[in-house]
């Protein structure tokens, strides 16, 4: 993904050959950009604001006044895939973070700091609006080490599903290194909304008369089996 | 119902109960509750009340406000163009990750983990298109068009006027989660019901009608 390039430029030697960059900055265990899966096990959203920033010393500090961020995550924890739709409004200037990108999910409850667990491609755009969308498959690495291990080590999306409120999302800039905007994850529904029982649907398949009832039942059973199979394929494919 | 229970990720203890309730829920439910209007002053449960009572979906344990913004709880939803005037019930997230739906086809519900009228984020209101034996509370929702008005009154008495921006039919298995439920910096309203072909094999409609509205 092209959005990783700025980080490479930040963290690697300027002017080094592209091949060298790729070799040194992409550990084999790092997350990979993947297509969107066919189904999700959960979803979360974040309303990020500048009045929620906590610095590394655990102190509340201001973020970028007037800026907002919306982060919506769709998770398939079976496949360890997280899809992200991020929009920043009013976040200005260059990104800056010791991690490999400056846009993260942290293990950090409201009012507390905490280490990054996932580093997302930084939203791209101008100072009024920046966006970033895609899907990453773990295991995840952040490029930040604590106690000799990457802060993404051992983290799985099941952790996020188990206690979303203990995770935050944010983005860091040169002017607001502790965070320009931040917010906590809240769960939202996934999938469609099952608001109908068929009473207004076409009635062409309604029960037949006695003479054909048995045959219709057989056909109906076959139809049910076939359709159920098709649905299963659609959901799993 | 059809979603495989093996996909469920947590609240394991509640899964069996919820699965059982879902079997009798929206897909085939409502047959004996078509007269639900009589009970409109009660607090009817959503279909999977065994799992996701209001407050379960968000971090309420430490008193942190639910949802993604301020505003206040909706207590009345009026859609003059289709003759809807209802008191919404609370809905959370079911064990399979989907939005709960009202058990009573004559009631509308709102997602308590999202936005609230007058605050940031989308307030999401849903209602059934039909029961097994006829139309339900949102039978005419597909008739709404851009420019129609929706008034949502909150618990503090504020009436927030919304105007329909657009409507959209979406496949239920490719539901636009971010567009419908994702946080927004401003006040938004979404109205949802079913539409499209009804799949009798799985006992549910295959599409949703989504109505997007913003403050007038």
TrEMBL record, chain A:
Family annotation (PROSITE patterns): TAT
Transmembrane segment boundaries: 213-233
UniProt keyword Signal, yes or no: yes
Keyword DNA-binding: no
Domain of life: Bacteria
InterPro entries: CHRD, TAT_signal
Domain CHRD: 48-187
Alphabetical keyword list: Membrane, Signal, Transmembrane, Transmembrane helix
Region of interest (Disordered), residue spans: 106-149
Signal peptide span: 1-25
Coiled coil: none
Name the record gives this protein: CHRD domain-containing protein
UniProt organism field: Nocardioides imazamoxiresistens
TrEMBL record, chain B:
Keywords per UniProt: Hydrolase, Signal
Pfam families: Sortase
Biased composition (Gly residues): 26-37
Compositionally biased region (Low complexity): 38-67
UniProt cross-references to SUPFAM superfamilies, sorted A to Z: Sortase (SSF63817)
InterPro entries recorded: Sortase (IPR005754), Sortase_dom-sf (IPR023365), Sortase_F (IPR042001)
Region (Disordered) residue spans: 26-75
Signal peptide: 1-24
Highest taxon, organism lineage: Bacteria
Record protein name field: Class F sortase
Gene source species: Nocardioides imazamoxiresistens
């Amino acid at each position: 993904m092209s959005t990783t390039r700025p980080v490479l430029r930040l963290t690697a030697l300027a002017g080094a050959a592209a091949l060298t960059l790729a070799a040194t900055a992409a550990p084999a265990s790092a997350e990979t950009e993947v297509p969107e899966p066919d189904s999700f096990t959960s979803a979360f959203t974040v309303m990020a604001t500048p009045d929620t920033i906590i610095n590394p010393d655990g102190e509340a500090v201001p973020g970028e006044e007037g800026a907002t961020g919306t982060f919506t995550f769709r998770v398939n924890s079976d496949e360890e895939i997280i899809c992200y739709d991020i929009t920043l409004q009013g976040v200005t200037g260059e990104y800056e973070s010791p991690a490999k990108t400056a846009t993260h999910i942290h293990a950090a409850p409201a009012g507390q700091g905490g280490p990054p667990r996932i580093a997302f491609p930084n939203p791209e755009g101008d100072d009024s609006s920046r966006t970033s969308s895609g899907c990453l498959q773990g295991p995840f690495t952040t490029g930040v080490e604590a106690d000799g291990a990457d802060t993404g080590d051992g983290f799985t999306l099941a952790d996020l599903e188990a206690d979303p409120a203990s995770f935050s999302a944010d983005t860091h800039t040169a002017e607001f290194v502790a965070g320009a905007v931040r917010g906590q994850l809240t769960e939202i529904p996934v999938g469609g909304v099952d608001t109908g029982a068929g009473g207004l649907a076409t009635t062409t398949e309604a029960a037949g008369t006695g003479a054909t009832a048995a045959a219709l039942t057989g056909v109906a059973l076959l139809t049910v089996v076939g359709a159920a199979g098709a649905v299963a394929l659609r959901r799993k494919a | 119902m059809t979603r495989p229970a093996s996909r469920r990720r947590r609240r394991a203890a509640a899964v069996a109960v919820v699965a059982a309730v879902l079997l009798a829920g929206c897909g085939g439910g409502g047959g004996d509750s078509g007269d639900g209007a009589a009970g409109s002053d009660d607090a009817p449960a959503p279909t999977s009340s065994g799992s996701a009572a209001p407050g379960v979906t968000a971090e309420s344990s430490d008193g942190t406000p639910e949802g993604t913004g301020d505003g206040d709880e909706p207590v009345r939803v009026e859609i003059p163009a289709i003759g809807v005037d209802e008191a919404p019930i609370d809905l959370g997230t079911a064990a399979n990750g989907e939005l709960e739906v009202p058990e009573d086809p004559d009631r509308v519900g709102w997602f308590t983990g999202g936005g609230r009228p007058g605050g940031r984020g989308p307030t999401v209101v849903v209602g059934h298109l039909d029961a097994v034996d006829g139309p339900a509370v949102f039978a005419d929702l597909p008739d709404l068009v851009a420019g129609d008005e929706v008034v949502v009154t909150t618990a503090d008495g504020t009436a927030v006027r919304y105007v329909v921006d657009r409507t959209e039919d979406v496949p239920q298995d490719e539901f636009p989660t971010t567009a419908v439920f994702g946080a927004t910096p401003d006040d938004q309203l979404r109205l949802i019901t079913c539409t499209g072909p009804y799949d009798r094999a799985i006992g549910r409609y295959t599409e949703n009608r989504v109505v997007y509205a913003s403050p007038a």
